[in-house]
Amino acid sequence: MMFARFAVVVTVCIPVFAEGTGEFAQTIKPVLSENCAACHNPNRAKNRIDFLKANTEADVSANRGLWRDVAAQLRNRTMPPVETKLTEGDRLRVSNWIDNRLRETACDGGEYAGAVAVRRLNRREYHNTIRDLMGVDFNVSELFPSDGTGGAGFDTNGETLFIPPIMMERYLEAAQQILDRAIVTPDLSAAYTAARMIPAIADDAAARELAVGGEVSVAQSIYLDGNYDVRVTVGGAEQKGRLLL
């Protein structure tokens, strides 16, 4: 009996990527180096970006805020600021590539993927805040419009909780109503005698004699809108005068 031996050779191909061989190094970086590196280089550190240092897509993803600004500057045509050979095609291609790269790697940073959108309180949060701070159970549903959900079903979506002009008007109206309920003021009632209007004279009779043919005045602060009765009594039937409010 004869046995044959066979040698099986398995070849495993492991791709090796050298630094600087990706799409960024081949098509994006040359455009930036030609049109931007003259100002943005290690010798001029105040210009913030070193286009000669970035070699891979990972360098773009690692400094997201900076490269987002690069894309915006290119798209808005604010950079380069001087005459340049940068074509419109290259300008849009580079800015779009940066935007797409940042979008594709948005979740690579872990649970915190970016800044949270600044938003206003929704109706439920506003109601709870006013109740806790002012002790007023204010029904916001009668004054504020319904909160948008943006299609996701959540009323805490920052993209929909912005402040349009009509909402600012409703906030001012709500603030006035809340303050009217939180600040309790007594009924406005005040009486002034001639002696009070002329403090230097304590005797009412002397004050009346001094006021004949002259002028007296008093300032009274009014803190509530409403209808008020003003009564003026002048001694003597022959005396005439004029009352100004």
What structural keywords apply?
single chain, 245 residues, mainly alpha, 8 helices, elongated
Distance between the termini: 132 Å
Q: Briefly note the structural class of the backbone.
A: mainly alpha
Beta-strand percent range: under 5%
Percent of residues in helices: 25-40%
Alpha plus pi helix count: 8
* Main beta-sheet strand count, sense and barrel state: none
Shape: elongated
Let me know the number of strands. Answer: 0
Low-pLDDT stretches: 6-20
SSE series? HHHHHHHH
Rg from alpha-carbon coordinates: 39 Å
| Average of pLDDT | 77
Task: Give a verbal description of the structure.
The chain is mainly alpha-helical and 245 residues long. 37% of the residues lie in helices and 0% in strands. The chain is built from eight helices and no strands. Helix 3 packs antiparallel against helix 4. About 6% of the residues have low confidence.
Q: What's this entry about, in short?
A:
The chain has 245 residues and is mainly α.
Secondary structure topology:
Blueprint: H1 23-35, H2 57-62, H3 64-75, H4 88-104, H5 123-134, H6 165-182, H7 194-197, H8 204-211
